[in-house]
Amino acid sequence: MTQFHTDDYIDFLQKVTPDNMDSYMREQGKYNVGDDCPVFDGLFEFCGISAGGSMEGAARLNRQKCDIAVNWAGGLHHAKKCEASGFCYVNDIVLGILELLRFMKRVLYIDIDVHHGDGVEEAFYTTDRVMTVSFHKYGEYFPGTGELRDIGIGQGKHYSVNYPLRDGITDESYRSIFEPVIENVMKYYQPEAVVLQCGGDSLSGDRLGCFNLSMDGHANCVNYVKSFGLPTLVLGGGGYTMRNVARTWAFETGVLVGQEMERTLPYNEYYEYYAPDFELNVRSSNMENSNSREYLEKITAAVIDNLRNTGPVPSVQMQDVPRKPFGGMTDEEEAELDDLDEDENKDVRMTEHRWDKRIENGAEFEPSDDDELARANGATRQSSNKRTFTDFSKGGEEEATGNSDEAINGKSAEANTEDNHDTNDDTIEEIVATEQDKERVEETTEETADKQTIDGDGDVGMTDSAPVEEEAKIKEEEPETQNAPAPAAAAAATGDVEKSADDSASQDNEGRPPKDQEKPTGEESKSEKVEIKDKEEQPADAMEIDGDKEKEADLATSSS
C-alpha cells in the first residue's frame, strides 16, 4: 500500500478502530476520515482485500498467467495519497497500475463510474505512461472535478481525457460517445494494458447516481474494451442499489469469460432481494436525457482533437526487475551473501566515505571495555598523538641519582618524541592551560634539582653499590624549635656533622675493597656546595634575634 500512500496514513488506518477513534481525532481531521469515510470494524482488512486483489490481478497479467483479471472489490478511485475521500480509503487502482508499469510501457485507464475518477487522474496527471479517460457527471456534483480542459500538465499534457456529461444519459447516447472516444484513444496512444473501472452507480435507479443506463448499456462498454484483445484488469467501483449492482457485475462477468447467462434467476437464499421481476436485468427508466446530440458531438470533437496533440507514442526503456531474490534465496541468505561479498572486497565495495565513518580517532575517546566489541564490528582505532603532558618525574629521578644517560654533547641520549600537534587549532582556554602546566613543570624541575639524595654512606648524589650496615647509618638530628642557634654555633654544629660523617666514611672504607674507597670528585664538590647552601639558607630572623640579645647584654654590662 505504501507504494502510493504515505506510511503515516497506512499506519493510521491499521491502528484506528471504533473503540479508540476518540484518541485519533487529530488524525481523523488530517486524513479526512469521519464523515463520508467512517471508521468501522475491519477497516484495514477491507483495504487489504481491495488493494491486494487489484495488485495480484495486475501481477498475473504481467506474467501472462491470464488475459483478463477481475476484482469487483476494487475500483476505489477517489482515495488520495494521504487522504480518504468518497467512501474510498486506499486507491487500489493506482496500486494496480503501478504494478502493470513494471512490465508495460503504457497503460490505459477507463472510468465509467458516474463520479469523476479524481484520485487516479491526480496520481498520473504529470506522466505520459498512463492515460486516464473518465466519463462522468459534471457540475454541482461530487467531487466537482473533471472539466473538459483538464488535460494534464508537463510531460502528461493531453494524456488526461475528461468527458463531462449531464443527467439522464441513455444507452444509445452513451454508446455514441464511448466507442468513438475509446477507438481514437487506442489509435493514438496504443496502450499495452487496460484498466477498466465499472462503477455501478451509473445504472438507472441508483440511489446516488443520475444516469439512465441499463444493464445491457453498461455491459456494452465492457464488451467493447474486451474486443481490443489487450491484457485487461476489470474492477468494481461505486454502486448504491445493491440488487442492481449485483445483477450487472454478474452479467458482465459472463461477458468477460464469454458465457451467456439466462435472464431468469435461480432460486437462492437472496432470491427475495430481486423482487418483483426476479430477472437478471436492469431496465432504463423514463428519466429525461439532458445531453443533447449537439452537446455530445461538440464534446466528442474536442476530446478527439486533444488526442491528436499527443504526438508520437510515448515509450520508455524497460528493464525487468524481479521482486524475488535471485536463485530463490531468502532474505536472510541474501543478506549473508552481501556481507560475505563486502568482507572479501572491502577495498572495492567500500567507499572512502564509508571507511572514514568507521574509523575512530585514538585521542577522541578514553579507553574502555567497548574496544573489543568495536573491533569485532569492524571499527578500527586510528593511531595518533595523544594530547598528554610530558612526565618529567622520570628524568628528574635519573638526574638526582646520577643514572641518566648522557650523550657526548651533554644532551639526553633518549630520542625526543616529535609532537605533530598544530598550535593554530588551540583555543584560548587550551593555550592558558598549557602555559600554566609549563609553569608547574618548571617549578617541579627546580625543586627536583635542589633536592639531592643521601645514600646509606652519607654521600650526597651517590648510589650505594653494596648494602650498608645499620651501624654506618647517620641519624638526622631534629631541628630545635625554641631557640635558633647562633651563626657560630650553627657552624660548629655543621663541622661536627662533617667530622662524624668523615669518621663513619673512614670506618666503612676500612672494611670495603679498595675500589670502593674511590669516590667521584664531582660528587664531593656537589656535597660541599650543598653544605654551603644550607649555611646560607639559615633564617635571617634567628640572626637578628641573636644580635638583639648581644646588644642587650652589652647595655647591661655598661650599666653595671
TrEMBL record:
Pfam families: Hist_deacetyl
Domain Histone deacetylase: 1-253
Alphabetical keyword list: Chromatin regulator, Hydrolase, Nucleus, Repressor, Transcription, Transcription regulation
Residue stretches of biased makeup (Low complexity): 484-493
Residue segments, region Disordered: 309-560
Main localisation: nucleus
GO cellular component labels: Rpd3L complex; Rpd3L-Expanded complex; Rpd3S complex
Compartment annotation: Nucleus
Gene Ontology MF terms in the entry: histone deacetylase activity, hydrolytic mechanism
Segments of skewed composition (Acidic residues): 330-345
Gene3D superfamilies assigned: Histone deacetylase domain
Protein family: Belongs to the histone deacetylase family. HD Type 1 subfamily.
Protein name, per record: histone deacetylase
Annotated organism of origin: Beauveria bassiana (White muscardine disease fungus)
Gene name of the encoded protein: RPD3
